[in-house]
Amino acid sequence: MTDENRPATGAEALEMLKQGNIRYVENLTTDPCTQKRPELVSIQNPLAIILGCSDARVPVEIVFDQGLGELFVIRVAGNVVAPSQIGSVEFAADKFDTKLVVVLGHSNCGAVTACVDALINPEQNYSPNLQSIVDRIRPSVYNLHELATADGQDVDADELIERSIRANVRTSVSQLKYGSRILEDLVGSGQLLIVGAEYDLQTGKVSFLEE
């Protein structure tokens, strides 16, 4: 959304959402998938579970060109893994027999950038709630930061952020694989595949990470 079209108040933004929902309800959107809505009232069979970032620039259904009912999406800043995220994945894998989980990070991730900033500038202060997200990302970034500063030279923050984004995705994949007996058993028996990926904001391409 451009600055010219951006609502100036919360009330204006709310009205835009209301009008958008009216278009959706009345099937006036340009997306033909709205025709599927009645069949999804009582059942859903998502083809994949996506644990992605809350970033507004990474709308998962659009990124993967999927419509209503196709993806079970969990979004949280920094695509971090906490008990609620694990529980959501367990629910979808068990309830819908969904066979794939994708942890989707993205370039220029603000949450990872905040964590890198906190390591480079220890005096950086965040609210307790934001700090809890940074703390979940920190283990993925810490070793990279230590290696980057081992020779005493200045840290290339952009390079560190880029590498940290992928490290954070891999950490989340590992936490899903080994932080739940249910998911670990499903993976071990070949009934569930958990992979990591990174979305490039500039190109729109999703690159899947090798284990």
What does this structure look like?
The chain has helices at 10-25, 60-63, 83-95, 110-120, 128-149, 157-178, 181-188; strands spanning 48-52, 71-75, 100-106, 193-199, 206-208. The model has no long low-confidence stretch (mean pLDDT 86). A 5-stranded mixed sheet has the order 2-1-3-4-5. β4 and β5 form a beta hairpin. The protein has 7 helices and 5 strands. With 211 residues, it is an alpha/beta fold. The chain folds into 2 domains: 1-30; 40-208, Beta-carbonic Anhydrase, Chain A, CATH 3.40.1050.10.
What characteristics describe this protein?
five-stranded mixed beta sheet; alpha/beta; 45% helix; globular; 2 domains; 211 residues; Beta-carbonic Anhydrase, Chain A
Total number of beta strands: 5
Give the SSE order as H and E letters: HEHEHEHHHHEE
Residue stretches low in confidence (pLDDT < 50, at least 5 long) are: none
Classification by helices and strands: alpha/beta
How much beta, percentage-wise?
5-15%
**Which topology of the largest domain does CATH recognise?**
Beta-carbonic Anhydrase, Chain A
Radius of gyration, Cα only, in angstroms? 19 Å
Q: How many discrete domains?
A: 2
- At CATH level 2, the architecture of the largest domain is 3-Layer(aba) Sandwich
